Amino acid sequence: MQGKRISLQISSGFFLMLSASLLILPLRLVTGWLIAASVHELAHILVLKDHVIVMKILPLGAKIETMPITLKQELIAALAGPFASLLLITLYRVFPSVAICGLVQFLYNMIPVYPMDGGRALRCIIIRLCGISQANNIMRLMRVLILLLLLSFSCYATVFFKTALPALLNIILIIRSANGKIPCKYRVRGVQ
Prior knowledge:
The chain has 192 residues and is an alpha+beta fold. It has a four-stranded mixed β-sheet with strand order 1-2-3-4. Helix 2 packs antiparallel against helix 3 and helix 6 runs antiparallel to helix 7. It is globular. The C terminus is likely disordered.
């Protein structure tokens, strides 16, 4: 039996971001990041199996479009990527840059802000407990609290360490990814 083919779309912005990364970071770190990101996304795809329609590689991550899936499938798929990234720590002695990038990717993806993996997993649990509208409200509140926490950290880093760039970049990424909307996965297609 032949498996279903998944459409892969790679944004030109991804190549621009990759080129910029190669200019400012060592090759071993960029390679480690690419390997860790590939393992992370592959874990999502393996869990979702025949439900995946399109995988889009974007400058700041990947987006997987799926057919409608259940809350349980979404929860498992949301956690599969970060935990695959976490398993890369076992490669520390052989491939330290892959292990470090996997750990950073795990920590970043588990931030409980929708549509990041941690936020998606938390949303699935809240939907099961309280319903979809209450879950959406809680996730909006979580996003505001996380953004306030990151903003506070960036102010602290500016005063005491004379740099706020990492925290400010995280704030921008979270605002861009969340942008206030929580799409409904249970209509025509879902988005990972």
